[in-house]
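Dig into this one:

. . .
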Amino acid sequence: MRILVIFFMLFSVLFAETVDCTQVFEVRKSELLKEIEKIDEARQSFEALQAATNALFDKQQAKIDSQRNDLNAKMKKIASKEEGIKKMLEENKKLLEAINGAKKDKISETYSKMKDSAAAGILSELSTTEAAAVLFTLQAKKVSKIMAKMDPKKASKITQRLVLGPPFK
């Protein structure tokens, strides 16, 4: 009998609270739908943010590419100008050498045609460096004749400068 009473009590407890499963499932379903809506909103926000980020990245990449192209164009211009300057510099050096050569030849020719005493008088008035530069271009025989007519102190200074050799600056 005890068993029967216990069984009856247990049976009554189990069926005393009847749960409406449909109602529980509907409540849970509405909760899940709200969660799905939240997830969908978050996904849409993420996609919008991703699209905006990609657009900004593309815009910045285009700007960088444009700047890179401008920089490359400027570098090419600079390189071509630098090449032009190098060519002009080389031409100017050649012209300067030709002018200096012609000048030295002209001066040398002038002093070689002068009388020794006149050349000695002019060279005595020049600085030691300038006189040495002029005498360096003349033939040794002409130099010895001119120096023989010069003041010995001036001639010795010029000789010392000639020993050092060019350039006479």
User: Anything to note?
Assistant: The chain is about 90% helix and 0% strand.
